[in-house]
Amino acid sequence: MKKLLFIYNPHAGKGKITDQLGRITEIFQAYGYLPALYATQGKGDGVWAGAALGEYYDHVVCCGGDGTLSETITGLYSHKQGGMSLGYIPAGTTNDFSRSLELPADDPLLAAEYSVAGYRQACDVGRVNGRRLFIYVAAFGAFTQTSYATPQPMKNVLGGTAYVLAGISSLTSLKKHHMKVIWDEGELEDDFIFGMVSNSVSVGGFQGVVQEEVILDDGLFEVLLVRSPKRLSDLNQIATALLGHKLNENCITFQTSRIRFESEESVPWTLDGEFGGEHRKMEVENLPGFVTLLSGKREEEEEAKEPEKA
After folding, report:
1. pTM for the structure as a whole
2. DSSP-assigned states of every residue in 49-97
3. Which of 27-31, 197-201, 222-226, 249-253 shows the highest mean pLDDT?
C-alpha cells in the first residue's frame, strides 16, 4: 500500500471531523493508502508537518479550514517536491477556497474520496515580498481582521454568522489608507478602505465580489480596491457592491500577475484569513500552477461518474 499523511485540525469548524476519523481512514485504505494521522495543536503546526514529514509520504491530505490548507501548502512546498499533489477535506467555518475546488464542505466522506481520487487541478499561489505564500487571498482594510480576530469558540457556535457580526462591528471604525498601487498595466494613488488580491470565487463567505472570471491556473490575480467613501451614499453603494451586486465608481477591479502597494504608514494585512503582518511596502506576485490540488471538478467525459476506487 502507498503511504498517506493526513494532517488535520481537530478544532476547525465545530470540531466534528474527529467523529469521522474512522470512516475517513477506511476510505483512504479503500483507495490503496496506508494513512498516518497528524493532529495540529496550534498556529504553525501545519507548516511544520508539511515541511518535516511530507517528503516521506506518497500523498498528503489536509483537513480543516482555509488556514490549515494554507499552512500545509506553505510547509509542503517549502522545498517544492516535483509531482506532489495535495488532497483537501474542508472543515472550517467559511471554507472559501473549497468553493473554487467544488469540494463539498457539508460531506466530509465524499470530500475524503475526492482528496485521493479527485481531478488534479493546478492552482496558482501568491507570494508576498518574496517570502510568504498564500493560496487564495491577501487583503487589507475593512473586514480583514474579522477572520483572525474572531475567537474560535464564537466561530464554532455561530459558524459563518460570527464573521458577519464581527464585520458589522468594524464598520464603526473604518480607517482609510493612502496608497500608491502599481501593477502590470497601470498605476494609481488614492485613499482606500479595503483591498484584496485573490484567486477564489469566494472570499470571507461572500461570492460574486470579483466580477472577472476566476481561473485557478491562469497566472492572474483578481484585484478589488475600494475607495474611501466621501458620503453616506457611497458607503451604501460599497456595501451593495461587496454583496456581489453591481459595482460602482467606488470599487476598482482588474486582473494582474504582479502588484505592489506603497504607503507611508504600516498597514495590517491578512493572508488566507490569518494575520500577515504590517507593511509599508507589499509586493504580491503570482506563481502560476505552483501547486496541484485534488478537487471535486471532473473532466467533461467523466462528469457523470463517481470517483472509482483503485
Report:
1. 0.81
2. HHHHHGGGSSEEEEEESHHHHHHHHHHHGGGT-TT--EEEEE-SSS-HH
3. 27-31
